[in-house]
Amino acid sequence: MDLELKDRVAIVTGGGMGIGKDVARFLSQEGCKVVICARRMSYLEEAAKEISAETGNEVLPLFCDTTDMQTVQSMVDQTMQHFGRIDILVNGAAAPSGVVRNDIEHAEDHELLGDLDTKVIGYFRCTKAVTPHMKKGGFGRVINIGGLTGRGSKVMSGMRNLAIAHMTKTLSDQLGPSGITVNLIHPGVVDTPHIQELYEREGVKQNKTPEQVRQGYIENTPIRRTLAPIEMGYLIGFLASPKAGAITGESIGIDGGLTRGIFI
After folding, report:
1. Burial degree of 261 (CB within 10 A; 0-12, 13-18, 19+)
2. Burial 150-176, CB ≥16 within 10 A → b, else e
């Protein structure tokens, strides 16, 4: 199926590694001109070189700290100067859920505030910065990357993901008349460089080895495996396409069936 993404311009925040990198990879494979941005330029430059060599399409690495509106605006301005348009924004710059302490007795205010500033308000800043350009073009796709903790189980990381779900729904109402859709995906256990940290943290709590924790997740997942980052790219690629124009304001789990609740 042709996703009709050729020559579309996509920004992927947190695009230097993990899920963001493979989302950028898939969008580039589909013909997008991709901007990847984050705070660590060395990761971005390496990822841009790798993806561009693989796909033959331009990948532009740009510095961006999503806690600072000035650098967000600078990144968007540079994208417009270089490519002349912005069609797609994938918000993915955030600390993984397993990194932030979630127990009420040990969590610190500065951890929560920093986490919300990066993931929730950071997503808002980036969306705000690209909105005028998407409106001008009459087309836009905003895809936010959340996490299953928004559906329960963890206090601090759950708060941020629930806030993003609310923001996604509200912005879909505001931006829909301008041809802009806004959606949210909730990844499950994805094989990224950070996932080992989660296994180690959970192992300490459960008195298990990291591998035992990993196997526990696998055994509790109907498809009996963890997920590959590129699988997030497949879903995001569709949501970013003109073919997904009727889908907006949705929170979509992509977790191999790990979530047992029914969401209607």
Report:
1. exposed
2. bbeebebbbbbbbbbbebbbebbeebe
The answer to whether 64 and 41 have CB atoms below 8 angstroms apart is no
Q: What is the pLDDT of residues 60-81, one digit of tens each?
A: 999 999 999 999 999 999 999 9
Read off the pTM.
0.93
- In tens, the pLDDT along 125-139 reads 999 999 999 999 999
Long-range residue pairs from 214-223, CB within 8 A, at least 24 positions apart, any chain: 217/189, 217/258, 220/258, 221/188, 221/189, 221/255, 221/256, 221/257, 221/258, 222/256, 222/257, 222/258, 223/256, 223/257
Q: Which two tokens stand for residue 211?
A: 């591998």
Backbone angles phi, psi at 17, to 5 degrees: -160, 170
Q: Which residues pair with 63 in a beta bridge?
A: 38
Q: What is the mean pLDDT of the chain?
A: 92
